Amino acid sequence: MKYFRYQSLDSVANLYPLVCWHIGAAQSDTKFIERMIQRVADDPIGKWLYLGDGGECVTKQSKGDVYTQTLSPQEQHNRLVELLTPIKHKGLFGVKGNHGARIYKETGLSFDETLMARIGLPYLGTAAFWHLKLQVDTEHPAIFSIYTHHGVDSGVTIASKATKAQAFDRTYIADTILTAHSHIALDLPPRYYAMLQPRGDDPIKWLATHEYVAGCAYDSRTGYAEDKGYPPLLPAHIVITFKAGAHGEKSQSVEIIRKEDI
Predict the structure, then answer these.
(1) Strands 250-258 and 236-244, sheet pairing
(2) How many CB atoms lie within 10 A of CB 99?
(3) SS3 letters for the chain?
(4) Cα–Cα distance between 70 and 248 in angstroms, integer?
(5) Among 212, 227, 152, which residue's Cα sits nearest to residue 182?
(6) 228 CB contacts (<8 Å, ≥6 apart)?
(7) What is the pLDDT of residue 199?
(8) d(CA 120, CA 231)
């Protein structure tokens, strides 16, 4: 886990987690990816993160069918660089996914770290615990704490995916916990925590943790999910809007962008 910090003069920021594109898989939705990139490019207050699994990264020794890949791992890498370079000035950092680990296990080369290096953004490894600071030039800035991780194996049902996503709030107290991996886009109910402060008229302070699952660009109506009889999931991404009030009050909301919406 590494620390990161981003500051903005603005009082509002839109955060786009880009994840699970699985370029190289027949089920990767190129049009959805390109439209999301265009949306980031057109958003004057938009910033993006890379949360892993940009490429399918199937090898002869890994899970998946190497013969159905539409691009080789190198071609997948090149395509990601081609897609992300036009918006690299809006990128913050990247963390690793599980599909890139397939390449690392066989070659010792990190697919995700090399991708970030080619684009020119920081690579933060497994997870990032970071601060987003808004309206920094005012007397009352707002500082959001955010924990970011690709996510862990989550099962098939929506309930199991939600449960796995909430596993991180047992360890990390943050304004926002952002994960992915399960291919669904979710805005989970906030978790509330009470803590005691050493001073003040009211020593009890309540904290709210907002948890989101970031979605994917993978259309699972065919392929592995169909073979296993899993419920299909269609491409969807989230956009989180962080806002700072006049006196430093913090608020956040999320929009889910689905394949049929664009």
Answers:
(1) antiparallel
(2) 28
(3) CEEEEEECCCCEEEEEEECCCCECECCECHHHHHHHHHHHHHCCCEEEEECCCCECCCCCCCCCCHHHCCCCHHHHHHHHHHHHHHHHHHEEEECCCCCHHHHHHHHCCCHHHHHHHHHCCCECCCEEEEEEEECCCCCCCEEEEEEEECCCCCCCCHHHHHHHHHHHHHCCCCCEEEECCCCCEEEEEEEEEEEECCCCCCCEEEEEEEEEEEEECECCCCCHHHHHCCCCCCCEEEEEEEEECCCCCEEEEEEEEEHHHC
(4) 49
(5) 152
(6) none
(7) 82
(8) 38
Query: Which residue positions in the chain have pLDDT lower than 70?
Result: 261-262
Write out pLDDT tens, residues 107-128: 999 999 999 999 999 999 999 9
Measured CA to CA, the distance from residue 224 to residue 145 in angstroms comes to: 37
Domains, the chain, ranges and CATH?
2-261 (3.60.21.10)
The pLDDT of residue 262 = 58
**Single-letter residue type at 250:** K
CB 128, CB 2: distance < 8 Å? yes
Q: How many residues does the chain have?
A: 262
CA atoms of 180 and 183, how far apart (whole Å): 7
